[in-house]
Task: structure prediction
Amino acid sequence: MGMEGNAVTDGEFHLSATDFTTIAGIIHAEAGIALGDNKGHLVYSRLAKRLRLLGLASFQDYCHLVTSADGGVERQAMIAALTTNVTRFFREPHHFEHLKTTVLPPLLQKAKQGGRIRIWSAACSSGQEPYSIGMTILSLMPDAGRYDIKILASDIDPNILHEGQEAVYPDAAMESVPAALRAKWFVNKTAGSARANEELRALVTFRKLNLIGNWPMQGLFHAIFCRNVVIYFNAETQAKVWGRIAPLLEPGGSLYIGHSERISGVAEQMLRSDGVTTYRSVARGAPNS
Result:
């Protein structure tokens, strides 16, 4: 869809090219997401419900709100509405197999001797990814909670983070969890849902974090999952994000990325391939091989 005409899309509300440009500019500036000209229908479908909720008559009125001094709360709601939260337990299972067989065994031995383990799930959505990491750890070390093992789960959307903290999932979402893991690490919440038990939830800390904003964490990670999020950024922003992530890995630490993503920029010299969309941190200054 081109942007030549005044109307990007019409329906209950009129979305003009000017409105679209305003919205696209905000989400790019605040979340790094690049909305192409073909995303008019997505913007309309995701935000029309916001207009109804706020009692606004047009996208022009909505743009006035989100660009005003009092529009901060709604800007965050807009970003949350436009952020894609597609996730499931053990998505791209080869990553969890690599984590289980290659990464965790030596780390868990160190943990038993008093060492620390830190794993980051960036863009964690509603928690299926960090809880999959947690179940992978617990499958090898059922008493992991006794040791210094923590998973940081971050996302830009506070509403989706709340869902992760609640850790309640419908049975349909639980289908990709092996039966033995579900029986051990989940409890039935209702007739049609289950909740991660206290031991699994205790491994995960949820925090709001914008991948193009400030990163408050200190210390290095033994593994980072940053999957299916930078694909929504333009090439320059992608390279910057990889360039910030790579130095946060312990030497030899693992980075897992989405199946459609590629490492770019300075990070290419800091990482080497270690499997399908799996990378290992190399010594600083060493050539990538």
The chain is about 40% helix and 20% strand. The longest strand covers residues 249-257. The domain at 93-281 is CATH 3.40.50.150 (Rossmann fold). Residues 15 and 59 are 6 Å apart (CA to CA).
